[in-house]
Amino acid sequence: MSMVAIDLAGISKRYGDKLVVDGLSLSVASGECFGLLGPNGAGKSTIARMVLGMTSPDAGQITVLGVPVPARARLARRRIGVVPQFDNLDPEFTVRENLLVYGRYFGMSTREVKAVMPSLLEFARLESKVDARVSELSGGMKRRLTLARALINDPQLLVMDEPTTGLDPHARHLIWERLRALLARGMTIILTTHFMEEAERLCDRLCVLERGRNIAEGRPHALIDELIGCEVIEIYGGNPHELQSLISPYAQRIEVSGETLFCYASDPEQVRVRLRERTGLRVLQRPPNLEDVFLRLTGREMEK
Ligand SMILES: Nc1ncnc2c1ncn2[C@@H]1O[C@H](COP(=O)(O)OP(=O)(O)OP(=O)(O)O)[C@@H](O)[C@H]1O
Ligand SMILES: [Mg+2]
């Protein structure tokens, strides 16, 4: 088996006169979890669809599981589990029927689907809903069914577009745990997400996209060290612009986002001393995280 699960070389994609993916190259090793991050409209779903051969690039080469895509996408798709951004379950069918129909796409018999159904239902915690129609499920339950359905063909690779959007915190933690177990057994995953905690927990490597370009790539903690590398103090409850001039001599960098001031300081105590005489402020000091990286790269209003 190839050690590279996904290879994109010089991919561009245009919709009308809009360049949506702009000369993108990246590769995902087999067994790796790779994240695509970026603001709304950055091109994440377009890339996911190109990996699946559902959209063709205007330029560049795509290889998935050793197979050229889109030319031989059907062959690649047999070994891929797919979670689209928007659920495409059949609302009139029950949970069981949806799984049976989906299994048929992969040439599975009813008996074969029935054999894997208990583990899929357990994965999604939908054991009690097997005979419920999809139209009767909550939004999060539908999402969990879509996630479980993606595993029906025992895939080598999972392509997941915002897998946990719409899930409650318990369900999200459950899915994270289960995806980590799949990774431990050698699964390869490419996912898009707007949850920085999800990316930080699951991804071995990730890239941040902006207007279809790769603007940063690496391991989550390496990016945090490299691009932030100091404590963050969040301050709210006062006039952020007035506070900014008070603390700016003691900060490496300051950003104002809405009514919150983000202060990056290698000596946070110096900053806190300056704030002590102020009343009514809420001050939160914390280690830097991937959200800081995301916001730095894709632009909170930069104020310093
Ligand atoms: N079928 C289409 N026809 C025309 N334009 C499209 C089409 N699909 C996507 N686009 C445009 O391509 C750009 C990238 O869209 P895409 O769905 O890939 O973004 P995304 O990063 O997945 O965003 P989100 O975080 O909101 O899901 C957007 O400007 C979008 O309007
Ligand atoms: Mg999208």
Helix content: 25-40%
Shape: globular
Strand order of the largest sheet: 6-7-8-3-9-10
CATH topology of the largest domain: Rossmann fold
Task: Write down the secondary-structure element order.
Answer: EEEHEEHEHHHEHEHEEHEHEEHEH
How many H/I helical runs? 11
Low-pLDDT segments, ≥5 res: none
Work out the strand percent: 25-35%
Roughly how many Å is the radius of gyration? Answer: 22 Å
**Alpha carbon gap, first and last residue:** 50 Å
Key features of this structure:
11 helices, 2 domains, 35% helix, ABC_transporter-like_ATP-bd, alpha/beta, Alpha-Beta Plaits, four-stranded antiparallel sheet, 304 residues, 14 strands, binds adenosine-5'-triphosphate, membrane, cell inner membrane, Rossmann fold, binds magnesium ion, six-stranded mixed sheet
Short description:
The chain has 304 residues and is α/β, with parallel strands linked by helices.
Blueprint of the fold:
Blueprint: E1 4-15, E2 18-29, E3 33-37, H1 44-51, E4 59-64, E5 67-69, H2 73-77, E6 80-83, H3 95-105, H4 110-124, H5 139-149, E7 157-161, H6 169-184, E8 188-192, H7 196-202, E9 205-210, E10 213-218, H8 220-227, E11 231-236, H9 240-247, E12 253-257, E13 260-265, H10 268-275, E14 282-286, H11 290-298
Parallel strand pairs: 3-8, 3-9, 6-7, 7-8
Antiparallel strand pairs: 1-2, 1-4, 4-5, 9-10, 11-13, 11-14, 12-13
Helix pairs in contact: 3-4, 4-5, 8-11
Main location: membrane
Organism: Sinorhizobium mexicanum
Domain ABC transporter: 6-236
